[in-house]
Amino acid sequence: MQSINTSCTRCVGAPLGCKYCGYTLIKYGTTTSGKQRYFCRSCSRTQISCYTYRAYKVLDVEIVRLTKEGLGIRSTSRVLQISVTTLSKRIKNIAARLYPPVVNTSAAYEVDELHTYIGDKSRAVWIVYALERDTGSIVGFNIGNRSVKTIVAVIHRLALLSAQCIYTDQLSHYRSIVPKSIHKVTPYGTNHIERKNLTLRTHLKRLSRRTICFSKSAVMLAACLKIYFWG
Q: Which of 30, 58, 95, 190 makes an SS bond possible with 226, Cβ 3.0 to 4.6 Å?
């Protein structure tokens, strides 16, 4: 097969040869959009001379901003003009680098549950999370059914922070896992976190009531929550 010059007519001065190893390229058919493909005999990789899909130019900060503004996956992909698959991977990668904030120990916290769905409306789940009273920071959350197992992960996080007191509603599960000495069930004791519930449902379309925009997977729901809480 004849070796060719791979400089693109729109990219004057582009380097010749394989972009991975510099070896001479040969023609290797065309893409579905009609662009010429090339093959490297040295590293056995295929490529085209000029890529027009520029998803790599989209900054993570733009994805975080739009996610926190409540745009869904498909809405964000339309605004940024990148594919849904690429966006989903980027969101998961961003979330994997996020961790709860450093907070003061011996603080007061409020814990509550937020109802939503995953996949379809036959699969109800609860988001259990803890809010620090003084700063309003979310220090931990967990997703699962409305059981002790789901709640205990959040309470364990508060135990590591040496919580001074924990305010909850009257759900019976809390009485069995929160130490009585710091457990508070009082009128208006969960006002801050109840207001946060309203903020979450207003800002995140996937948590709105009476909606079809619920999350399709627990992984994506957790990733979007991490970005909203800690991004």
A: 95
Strand order in the sheet with 46-48: 25-30, 36-40, 46-48
SS3 content of the chain, % helix, strand, coil (to 5): 35, 25, 40
Q: Which comes out higher in pLDDT, residue 208 or 113?
A: 113
Contact 209, 197 (CB under 8 A): no
Q: What sign does the dihedral 168-200-121-223 (CA atoms) show?
A: negative
Amino acid 142: pLDDT = 97
Q: Could you give the CA distance from residue 140 to residue 110 in angstroms, rounded to a whole number?
A: 11
Which helix (H) or strand (E) covers residue 215, if one does?
none
- 81-108 pLDDT, tens per residue? 888 988 999 999 999 999 998 888 889 9
Instruction: Provide the pLDDT confidence category of residue 214 given band limits of 50, 70 and 90.
Output: confident
Strand ranges inside the chain, DSSP E: 25-30, 36-40, 46-48, 108-118, 120-132, 138-144, 165-167, 183-184
Query: What is the spatial distance between Cα 168 and Cα 201, in angstroms, rounded to a whole number?
Result: 20
Contacts 24+ apart (CB under 8 A), 14-22: 14/49, 14/50, 18/42, 18/43, 18/45, 18/47, 19/47, 20/45, 20/47
Q: What is the DSSP string of 27-78?
A: EEEE-TTSPEEEEETTT--EEES-----GGGS-HHHHHHHHHTT--HHHHHH
Query: In this predicted structure, what is the pLDDT of residue 10?
Result: 47
